[in-house]
């Protein structure tokens, strides 16, 4: 990197000073009356043609986030001041003057000259920086394509508001900023990477925002990070038209939400919904469930290492689209039953108001796109309106008829007593009958609709799980033996993750998802752990396919009940763009070599992972017949001495994790078992059961395997692979022999 002696160094220092000074002015103004300044800017920019598009007004408004920051969050502003930008492009848009654009995490425009002091990394023109090439380039702005010439790209190292160095980069230069970022110590949480986003990652972040995307990415290729940056890019680009509360990110567990918790505010993202599938379904349906812990299910399978899954594997079946089909048949039975209740016409007295057959058609055909109970609500409204309209004409007709009869009595009957008697009779009858009709009309719709009882989803689904007659009718594809197995499996009421899709689906089809939970855009991390039906149910309930899904089949440790290939996901999302990421940014070449050995044993036939060029220590195998405190202590101390801060000891099961942490603590090593609700802290040694390690990363990892070695089975290979790929810099394997880690002699 260019240090102080570079001929432009002073120029760059001055530029940084100028930027900071202007920021100070803004900050001061914000103390006074920033709102007024902001309004003025909006006003004066209203007619301005600017860099990115003729839509410049909107663009600048969204670009002027700095002002909003100043207004709302002094703290973030101070943070931006410490590092206002990280790169500069020397760029000329076709037909315009050359410009030096400084790229940072937020934008800043001079409020009098409108000069862009900092350009937001998410703005269209910043794409030029990430795209890689120098020379003639094009970049998309909304639906148009702009062209221009990129003369140079410069990266800056700025710390605490001071310029340390800079470097001009092109394709042939070694990306020092990236190297620097990767060799740094692991934060206990994920961090933003705006300065070093790579070309293939940038393509995913900026991939068409109105289309779904699916990413198969190697361990450590940046999937989680990219998904979070795409959220930031999405909200920035959509601007004020999109309410962030309608964007949901689904993470595998609460620990993971905590792990990513710091990145989003750093990227300017707030108020989005971050949750797990389990929590979301329970909120959206209002159904409370005590769920079996999926990790316990997994442990039960891996403990004996045999992968003994029954051929009629119910958790797996519940994730298939065939299961959805069975439930659809069940819904059809329910729907037909309700439709049959429309056989009676709606009437007041003997006057027909609406024909039942007409309502039935509305229910089964015209409104079939709506959830069942919503259709009934709509039909009730139609009945109400019709009754209101027609009851009036019934009353008018009757009124007229009584008047005629009274008139006839008055003129036709000569006997005054008889006449009085008849007239009084008609009047009495009218006065009694008409108010009754009026009253009846008020409740006709409710009375008619009373036959449609509202159902509760949980017992409705439970009936399907346990009713022999229903099952044989809707699942004839299953043999009698399989049907019996299914019924027996559900004899005792207990709920598991794989039932969530069914409950959500039924709720969506019968009651509909309430607006508050009807997310418009969904981001799913670790999507390989979902079943096809889980995704299909979500898509049906939300009535959108706007999903960004990232995952890695090689880490599909729940594959006994989840996705094992992407084709069926792509069939479910036919508009989706599919991407792959092959490079790992997390792990050193040496660690990846070991992990690749395990990857190559897998059935998925995934290409080997390419580590970015970063060397480290060769992973060390330490022979030990049993778990030995001294051995662990020695490794642990060595790792601490090399300056590592986050160190994890990964074992296969949670039982072992508890046992080892007790042993280590008694021995004097502070060790904590990582749990789903843990708060990630730095200092102590973390003992991590393998399935919980997914998604996380550590400076150094010690994998131990004694009582429960890793067997050469699909799930074990994946668990081991997950463990190996958590290490950024150093890896130790401790066990009786290398075969315990499937690594041969
Ligand atoms: N372009 C980049 N610049 C700097 N660091 C990067 C870049 N891309 C990824 N990283 C770093 O690589 C590590 C792995 O990223 P991340 O956890 O997002 O990967 P992942 O694909 O989700 O991994 P896994 O599937 O193993 O959970 C993180 O420390 C991240 O900061």
TrEMBL record:
What keywords were assigned to this record?
ATP-binding, Helicase, Hydrolase, Nucleotide-binding
GO biological process entries? recombinational repair
Recorded GO cellular component terms are: cytosol
- GO molecular-function annotation terms? 3'-5' DNA helicase activity; ATP binding; DNA binding; hydrolase activity
Gene3D superfamilies, per this entry? Answer: P-loop containing nucleotide triphosphate hydrolases
Annotated UvrD-like helicase ATP-binding domain residues:
196-588
Question: Which residues are listed for ATP binding in this entry?
Answer: 217-224
| Protein name (Swiss-Prot/TrEMBL) | DNA helicase-2/ATP-dependent DNA helicase PcrA
């Amino acid at each position: 990197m260019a240090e102080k002696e570079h001929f432009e160094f002073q120029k760059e220092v001055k530029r940084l000073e100028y930027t900071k000074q202007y920021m100070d002015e803004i900050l001061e103004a914000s103390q006074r009356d920033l709102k007024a300044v902001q309004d003025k800017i909006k006003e004066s920019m209203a007619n301005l043609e600017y860099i990115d598009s003729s839509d410049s007004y909107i663009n600048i408004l969204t670009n002027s986030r700095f002002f909003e920051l100043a207004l709302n969050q002094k703290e973030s502003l101070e943070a931006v001041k410490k590092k206002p930008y990280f790169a500069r492009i020397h760029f000329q848009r076709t037909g315009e003057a050359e410009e030096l654009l400084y790229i940072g995490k937020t934008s800043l425009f001079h409020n009098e000259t409108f000069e862009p002091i900092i350009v937001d990394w998410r703005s269209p023109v910043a794409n030029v920086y990430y795209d890689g090439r120098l020379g003639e380039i094009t970049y998309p702005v909304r639906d148009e394509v702009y062209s221009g010439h990129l003369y140079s790209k410069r990266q800056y190292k700025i710390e605490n508001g001071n310029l340390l160095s800079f470097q001009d980069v092109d394709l042939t230069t070694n990306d020092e900023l990236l190297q620097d970022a990767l060799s740094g110590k692991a934060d206990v949480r994920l961090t933003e990477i705006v300065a070093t986003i790579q070309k293939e990652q940038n393509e995913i972040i900026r991939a068409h925002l109105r289309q779904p995307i699916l990413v198969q990415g190697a361990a450590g290729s940046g999937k989680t990070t990219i998904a979070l940056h795409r959220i930031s890019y999405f909200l920035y680009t959509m601007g004020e038209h999109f309410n962030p509360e309608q964007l949901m990110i689904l993470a595998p567990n609460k620990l993971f939400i905590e792990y990513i918790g710091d990145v989003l505010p750093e990227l300017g993202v707030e108020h989005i919904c971050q949750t797990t599938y389990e929590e979301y379904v329970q909120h959206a349906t209002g159904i409370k469930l005590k769920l079996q812990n999926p990790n316990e299910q997994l442990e039960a399978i891996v403990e004996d290492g045999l992968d003994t899954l029954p051929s009629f594997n119910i958790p797996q079946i519940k994730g298939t689209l065939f299961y959805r089909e069975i439930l659809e048949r069940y819904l059809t039975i329910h729907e037909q039953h309700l439709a049959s209740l429309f056989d009676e016409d709606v009437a007041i007295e003997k006057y027909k108001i609406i024909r039942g057959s007409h309502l039935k058609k509305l229910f089964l055909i015209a409104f079939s796109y709506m959830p069942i109970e919503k259709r009934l609500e709509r039909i009730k409204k139609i009945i109400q309106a019709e009754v209101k309209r027609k009851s009036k004409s019934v009353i008018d007709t009757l009124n007229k008829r009584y008047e005629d009869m009274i008139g006839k009595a008055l003129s036709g009957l000569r006997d005054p007593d008889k006449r009085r008697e008849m007239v009084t009779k008609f009047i009495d009858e009218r006065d009694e009958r008409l108010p009754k009709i009026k009253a009846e009309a008020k409740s006709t719709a409710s009375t008619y609709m009373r036959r449609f009882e509202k159902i509760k989803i949980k017992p409705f689904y439970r009936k399907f799980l346990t009713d022999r007659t229903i099952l044989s009718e809707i699942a004839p594809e299953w043999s009698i033996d399989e049907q019996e197995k299914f019924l027996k499996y559900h004899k005792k009421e207990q709920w598991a993750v794989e039932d969530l899709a069914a409950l959500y689906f039924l709720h969506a089809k019968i009651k509909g998802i309430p607006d508050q939970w009807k997310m418009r855009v969904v981001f799913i991390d670790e999507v390989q752990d979902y079943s096809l039906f889980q995704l299909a149910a979500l898509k049906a309930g939300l009535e959108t396919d706007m999903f960004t899904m990232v995952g890695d089949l090689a880490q599909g440790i729940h594959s006994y009940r989840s996705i094992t290939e992407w084709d069926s996901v792509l069939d479910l999302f036919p508009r989706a763009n599919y991407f792959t990421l092959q490079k790992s940014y997390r792990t050193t070449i040496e660690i990846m070599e070991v992990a690749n050995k395990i990857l190559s044993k897998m059935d998925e036939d995934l290409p080997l992972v390419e580590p970015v060029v970063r060397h480290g220590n060769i992973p060390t195998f330490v022979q030990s017949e049993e778990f030995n405190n001294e051995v662990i202590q020695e490794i642990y101390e060595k790792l601490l001495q090399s300056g590592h801060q986050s160190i994890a000891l990964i074992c296969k099961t949670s039982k072992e994790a508890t046992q080892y942490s007790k042993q280590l603590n008694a021995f004097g090593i502070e060790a904590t078992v990582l749990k789903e609700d843990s708060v990630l802290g730095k200092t102590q040694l973390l003992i991590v059961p393998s399935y919980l390690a997914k998604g996380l990363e550590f400076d150094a990892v010690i994998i131990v395997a004694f009582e429960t070695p890793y067997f050469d089975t699909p799930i074990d290979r994946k668990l081991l692979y997950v463990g190996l790929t958590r290490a950024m810099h150093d890896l130790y394997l401790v066990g009786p022999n290398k075969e315990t880690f499937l690594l041969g002699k």
